[in-house]
Amino acid sequence: MKRRSQTLRVRVDLPGRPYDVRVGSSILSEMPGWLKSRKNKKAFIISDQSLTAARQKLKSSLKKSGWEITEIPVQAGESFKDWQKIYPVYGELLRAKAGRDATIFALGGGSIGDAAGFIASTYLRGVDWVGLPTTLLAQVDSSVGGKTAVNHALGKNLIGTFHQPKLVVCETDFLKTLSSREMISGWGEMIKYGLVFDSRFFKSLRDSFTDNAWLFPAHLRKSIQTSLKWKAHVVAQDEFDRKGLREVLNFGHTFGHALEAETGYLEFQHGEAVLWGMRFALALSQVRGHLSAHLRSDLDSVLAQAPIPRLPSQFTGRDFFQHMSQDKKVRNGRLHFVLLKSLGKPISDSKVTEADLHAAFALLKAARG
Ligand SMILES: NC(=O)c1ccc[n+]([C@@H]2O[C@H](COP(=O)([O-])OP(=O)(O)OC[C@H]3O[C@@H](n4cnc5c(N)ncnc54)[C@H](O)[C@@H]3O)[C@@H](O)[C@H]2O)c1
Ligand SMILES: [Zn+2]
Questions:
Q1: For a pocket test of ligand 1, which of 137, 152, 157, 234 has the largest count of ligand atoms closer than 8 A to its C-beta?
Q2: SS3 238
């Protein structure tokens, strides 16, 4: 007899609109049970068109429980997060007579989640949605928190809303078809939670990265759950990102975003750029006197094991500083960063100078890997 998988649960405790995230392998068949309080079973599945098998599994699980299904497959990826690309989806919903009682199911990576969440929040002034993230990055990060977005020619994620899902289902079987780079990108975000919140989690991740374990390491389900607990914890305290508490989730992202942008979003997956960004943030933490040289080198050696593209030689500390100046992130010659004072203990530092950036860059270059 096939052993039934154990489903892990994370509660996102928002006043008036709490929801659950379920994590496990072969758990789609259980999903209708988690949605049984819904009065109308009208499902509109906005999905990454390339994920045929995942879509079939979702449909079959919903059909068995009497859901009426309308499929809206789309071309996933960053290019879908575009005003004009999502416009026809509203047409499909209208033609299918989706009413206020419709439930949108977003099946795909973060690009689908961000755009389908945005559609759900604006269609008929807002309908309910369920997230079914299919990349590790989306499972540990973008699927929780309710930030929805499309891009503008002048920048990423500039048009969006806060619209929490009703349920998120992280089916780990979906991850089996991901490329190793996509997996490593997700690991980048997981390591972030360990570094800034949870020394035990960081150590357990460190111990599971042996040989080829980057692709399918031990304790994957548990690691996803722990990551989500931290994300949910921060989101519950600062749902609308107004208190500055969510900024800690951006550890490593200032440098990571600059690296992504300066390389035209072509050379690095997001989590790969964040891994470099976290190595930079560790170096800067040492330069600013928050973190000992010994601990920095210890933590850095774990991150340096990740098989990611090397830093392009043309990307220098000066480029990074110029990028930040253009982004208007430099005020009176000083910059704001989330840094680390020890494992699991972040610190906000608004007194970083250009000279500090250069010193940190030199440290990073001198480190192996
Ligand atoms: N809302 C938030 O809080 C938040 C947080 C972090 C990132 N994001 C957003 O998430 C997006 C990135 O997400 P992503 O990395 O998941 O990218 P993505 O959705 O573009 O997916 C990456 C690629 O993986 C493919 N793919 C997806 N699932 C697959 C599977 N199971 N097997 C094989 N291939 C699969 C997709 O077709 C695509 O080519 C960005 O747009 C970013 O802005 C949002
Ligand atoms: Zn990120």
A1: 137
A2: coil
How would you write the pLDDT of the chain (369 residues) with one tens digit per residue? 555 568 999 999 999 999 999 999 999 999 999 999 998 999 999 999 999 999 999 999 999 999 999 999 999 999 999 999 999 999 999 999 999 999 999 999 999 999 999 999 999 999 999 999 999 999 999 999 999 999 999 888 999 999 999 999 999 999 999 999 999 999 999 999 999 999 999 999 988 876 566 666 668 999 999 999 999 999 999 999 999 889 999 999 999 999 998 898 899 999 999 999 999 999 999 999 999 999 999 999 999 989 999 999 888 888 888 887 777 677 778 889 999 999 999 999 999 999 999 999 999 988 865
d(CA 171, CA 23): 6
Residue 24: strand, helix, or coil = strand
Nearest listed ligand to the Cα of residue 145: 1
- Element housing 345 (H / E): strand 345-353
Which tokens go with 223? 């690691």
Strand bridging mode 345-353 / 334-342: antiparallel
CA 76 to ligand 1: nearest atom: 37
Q: Using CB atoms within 10 A of its CB, is residue 352 exposed (0-12), middle (13-18) or buried (19+)?
A: buried
How much of the chain is in helix, strand and coil states, percent to nearest 5?
A: 50, 20, 30
Question: Which residue among 114, 121, 136 has the greatest number of ligand 1 atoms within 8 angstroms of its CB, and so is best to mutate?
Answer: 114
Give phi and psi for 236, each to the nearest 5.
-65, -30
Residue 76 in contact with ligand 1 by CB distance below 6 A = yes
Nearest ligand for residue 150 CA: 1
Asked if 40 and 242 count as a contact pair (C-beta separation under 8 A), the reply is no
Compute, in angstroms, the gap from residue 271 CA to the centroid of ligand 2. Answer: 6
- CB–CB of 366/286 below 8 Å? no
Shortest-distance ligand to the CA of residue 231 = 1
What is the pTM for the complete model shown? Answer: 0.95
Residue 40 CA to ligand 2 centre (angstroms): 35
The answer to whether the beta carbons of residues 173 and 25 sit under 8 Å apart is yes
The answer to whether residues 126 and 163 touch, using CB atoms and an 8 Å cutoff, is: yes
